[in-house]
Amino acid sequence: MELINEDPRSEEIIRPILRGRDIKRYGYEFADLWLIATFPAKHYDIDKYPAIKKHLLSFGKKRLAQTGEKNIDGIDGNDARKKTSNKWFETQDSISYWDDFSKPKIMYPNMTKYLPFYYDTNGFFQNDKSFMITGACIAYLTTFLNSSLFKFCFLDNFPELLGDTRELRKIFFDKIPVKKITLDQNKQFEAVVNDIQREYSEQKAILIDSMIFDIYGLTQKEREQIGYIKIL
What we know:
The protein is α+β, with helices and mostly antiparallel strands. 32% of the residues lie in helices and 13% in strands. It has helices spanning 2-6, 50-57, 61-64, 138-146, 148-154, 170-173, 183-198, 202-215, 220-226; strands spanning 14-18, 23-24, 27-28, 34-36, 105-109, 111-112, 118-120, 125-126, 130-133, 166-167. A 3-stranded mixed β-sheet has the order 4-1-8, with no helix packed on it. Strands 7-5-9 form a 3-stranded antiparallel β-sheet. The mean pLDDT is 93. It is built from 9 helices and 10 strands. Strand 2 and strand 3 (27-28) form a beta hairpin.
């Protein structure tokens, strides 16, 4: 990236970002998009990042200022950002949960046809077209949400929108029961998740389905009834 090449210290506050459309089942398609993550809570000194300061100023300091001023210099539509108490180079919102982006997490789009969930340990940030889940046993939860069991049993928990898409909001996940496992069991799921995300195959996905079926104690008849659900 140019800013990092110009000043390696820029890497401290530049983060890769995924949009909802970039998130796939056990993976992602990176669109080479980056965020200058100058959150107010971090109290950055912009002068310590000269390449980033220079880049931001190229857009005009008055436009970046969070004054809410309209028609700057008498130019119609040349507006500053919404009025806040934050500095000109900072994000508009404080993002109090900013450190959660660096934790192992599940990323998923807010609307989708395919219910894709990605286990992220790369510290990706994301836009408002996607959500994340953090906490314990995240690898296991990723496999459960990507599993045929989840699709078979809980697809109708999410409202259907136009174009056969589903809305994946937190209030709908809250109603879904998930079996608890031990941290040792989660380590087994970490291994299979890391493997399938390195190189995806249907055979690996079917194996993970079998692990989920075992956790839920499904009979052979129940397993056959569910089968392998590839596309919703």
